[in-house]
Write a structure and sequence with these properties.
This is Ligase-associated DNA damage response exonuclease. Its EC number is 3.1.-.-. The protein is an alpha/beta fold and 333 residues long. It folds into two domains: 185 residues, Metallo-beta-lactamase, Chain A (4-Layer Sandwich); 127 residues, Metallo-hydrolase/oxidoreductase (Rossmann fold), CATH 3.40.50.10710. The protein has eight helices and 19 strands. The strands form three sheets. The protein has a seven-stranded mixed beta sheet. The longest helix is centred in the middle third of the chain and has 14 residues. The chain is globular, with a radius of gyration of 20 Å. The chain starts with a helix and ends in a 10-residue tail after the last strand.
Amino acid sequence: MKPHDVLQVRPDGLYCPAGDFYIDPSRPVDRALVTHGHGDHCAPGARSLLATPETVAIARTRYGEQAFENFQEAPVGQTIRIGDVEVRFVPAGHVLGSAQIVLETGGARVVVSGDYKRAADPTCAPFEPVECDLFVTEATFGLPVFRHPPLQGELDRLLASLAAFPQRAHVLGVYALGKAQRIMAELRARGYDRPVYLHGALLKLTQLYETLGVPLGPWKQVMEVEKAELRGQIVLAPPGAIQDRWARRLPDALPVGVSGWMQVRARARQRRVELPLIVSDHCDWDALCRTVTEVKAQTIWVTHGAEEALVHWCRQQGLEAAPLSIAGRGEED
């Protein structure tokens, strides 16, 4: 079987005819295999959800028990047969529970990456490259201009700002799943032992991470403390909240952007960010190219971002490459 025959691009998403399932469908389907728990990949409404145990727990926490008729767990590395397809979930390094989905049928191996990163992250298992015939890769930061600096340097800038402005609450705009918990864990690894203060929207998933064995250190809910206690402290909130009415209760709030997009100065200015930190849960350009080389696939499908640049690079390497142009992706935006 040719790799192109294993997967089809349909309006609902990537479809595997030999197994009669979709991967990360954008609409309700009978059977969904899901790479991770972000809403642009794990949409509620499918009859059956198959994902890693952590992603199943995240889906239950975010959407409730009624979001899917049937939850099924796929332990990482275990082969499951669905129809005529052998399926494995392999770590993607994006967020807790994130996985690439490996499909083998008719002598062909296809890997769907979902979102992934190659940088170390104490909150999730690292990305594992899998050699394959067809690799479906994201390209959120798929332009040569995107080269993410080491995380430790960005944390140095945050801690230096805290020392320089001890009366100001530093409010970091972070995604509720993954980014918030990664920042907390990385701060603890640096020896930061003060409480981190959380917007209410971050509580459930932070609690879930700790339940699933990810230590995050002391934290408090912003609404349960006096305003004066927040001076000189780190506050985590959804990106949309750092310029919202909610932030007005913070003492002289200093808005901090935490995203790979902070490399684009216009984005930081548009969001009125005073301290842009370039921290991403996706690959930068070099990591994308490195991964394509390591998996040794002769066919590359590119989606979720700046597709054409990576497609062009792949073709320069003698690979067959094409953009998928699946809309509605990119939670870091």
